[in-house]
Amino acid sequence: MTHEEITLAPAGITAANLRELIDTNLYMPFPFQSNPHASRAATGVDKWLAKWGLTDEPEVAAMISRTRPAELAAYNSPAMDSGLLQIMANQIAYQFVFDDRAEDVGRHEPGRLLPMLCESVGILRDGQPPDTLLGAALADLHRQVQERCTPAQAERWAWTSREYVHGLLYEAVSQTDSVPLESGLCRSIRSLIAGVEPFHPLCEAQQPFELAPEEIRHPAVRRLARLSADAAVWIADLFSAVKEQRTGGMVNLALAYQRAHRCSLPTAITLAIRRINSTISEFEELYGETRPELSPAGVGYVEGMAGWIRGCYFWSRTVPRYADTTVASAVP
């Protein structure tokens, strides 16, 4: 980010709060959509979490109420059938529970994080039996994916889920280091803990037939997957920046800009929006160039990636988890 670019952000702000600032400046070419099975998925999530005892703790139940995982799934995948949507909603709920617990443990007692992460890797890689309630929920989620997806899709799901688990260890290291996290490292860790790419195999499973290996490994398709995940999670970072700043979070794109340039949060958010806008524009352009080469299933697969960009925006702007954005001033 050059000095000239920094001086452009933001002048003559008229937004009343940070949400208005984001709404005004973020490029969002994908219109709002929602899955008609959203209410059923929300009921299913509550039952599934209760079955595995994950909402027995009042604070976890309150977090799920503020987070609305089925709503995020519905916005991301408006055309997905009810069975697959339920798996996605369960997985989103699980990842929020797991991520919040891992962040809390990693920040205060890093040594206790290792058994938690190793249990997850053992379940996903080796099919080991779980030792905890969180592990039991993950094993059940893995079973659901294996029953609905092809073996290759289920293996891709497990591999990307393991990458997400490993990323949580890097996040814990960054939280305990006294040296402020550099912007490039922040983005690298964020790409691991985004938790978006484990859902791409579910987008593939929604298609009428499995993608050929050469289509999955196509350089443009792999790049689209990266752009989709980055844009989706960075959008959530814009809306979660106030919460993360209050709780001492480090791995957040907007806060990384704030640390790097010693600027106000509204200025940092504006700079982050510019990076997100360029990422979404690159996704659009590359998809337009690549689409003629893709099979119908490949097109549907990439549309699922685009859905995550759209869904994370429309979910983040109204979800109670990020309500602080509506009361934080947009004036630097």
From TrEMBL:
It holds the Pfam family Terpene_syn_C_2. This is Sesquiterpene cyclase. It comes from the Bacteria. InterPro entries: Amorph_synthase (IPR048138), Isoprenoid_synthase_dom_sf (IPR008949).
